[in-house]
Design brief:
With 262 residues, the protein is an alpha/beta fold. It contains 8 helices and 9 strands. Helix 7 (210-225) packs parallel to helix 8 (244-258). The longest helix is centred in the C-terminal third of the chain and has 16 residues, at 210-225.
Length: 262
């Protein structure tokens, strides 16, 4: 599926030596590359939002099996209502979209939890548009210096998914950096020291393991959003240490979940 993924992507995107090295290293996997569109491509402008770039990825597991069975590239939106919590299992899709879709393919729970890292290679500097499981530390041995487009959406540079200021939002308000929790709040905890008193608590990882926290993030937000509470309080996720890049990706999702909603 890896070779097939590159061949499919090359039919409509311009691969250079750098993007090919990244595909060889991280595909199939959680890295999306934003590349210039190839001249004469047959992609509908709706797929690229009218831009002169296209985001491509070769997924693992069920997604790879589906693309291989189709024998062609697959373009699809996220399987959730716009701006809401990302789904990590089929039940989340059903709850979000309901009767608006006639079929849900259940490939099991997502192993990583977070969406893919989106890396823009269409400009002079490689830029992370959306942080994910593939971190800047993972990319620098191949890319060199990597920029992070933290203010891209506000500057009018919305070039990839998940860059809106308010995104991944549950129905309840979200309060970040919580060190205590009220009795009418749900608590999204992290680590061994958890304040008591909340109506319901789910711990992303009692041991402080960031890979486990990433895998649980959206599923736990879905569960807490079902509780009869006033708000969801979220404990801090420290970004120091060897897994700091993954912590930044988790905090990116949480900040957008807590942002003011238009």
């Amino acid at each position: 599926c890896h070779g097939t993924g590159i061949e499919m992507a090359e039919s409509f995107a311009e691969f250079d030596p750098l993007s090919r090295r990244l595909a060889d290293q991280f595909w199939p996997g959680a890295l999306t590359l934003v590349l210039p569109l190839k001249e004469g491509n047959a992609i509908h402008p709706l797929v690229t939002a009218g831009l002169d770039t296209v985001a491509v990825r070769a997924p693992k597991g069920f997604g790879a099996e589906l693309i291989a069975a189709l024998g062609r590239p697959l373009a699809a939106p996220s399987a959730n209502a716009s701006g809401r919590i990302s789904p990590t299992e089929a039940a989340h899709v059903a709850a979000s979209l309901g009767e608006r879709v006639s079929l849900i393919l259940d490939g099991g729970p997502c192993a990583v939890g977070l969406e893919s890292t989106v890396l823009d290679l269409s400009g002079p500097v490689a830029t992370i548009l959306r942080p994910g499981a593939v971190t800047a530390q993972d990319l620098t041995p191949i890319v060199g210096s990597v920029a992070e487009a933290t203010e891209a959406a506000e500057a009018g540079g919305l070039k990839g998914p998940g860059m809106l200021t308010s995104h991944y939002a549950p129905g309840h308000p979200v309060r970040l950096d919580a060190t205590e929790v009220a009795s009418d709040e749900a608590l999204l905890a992290f680590g061994p020291e958890v304040p008591g008193g909340g109506a319901v608590t789910l711990n992303l990882s009692p041991s402080g393991d960031l890979k486990a926290a990433a895998a649980h993030l959206f599923a736990y937000l879905h569960r807490l959003d079902e509780a009869e509470v006033r708000a969801i309080a979220v404990m801090p996720i420290p970004e120091d240490g060897p897994q700091g890049g993954l912590a930044r990706a988790i905090n990116d999702r949480l900040k957008r979940a807590a942002a003011p909603r238009g």
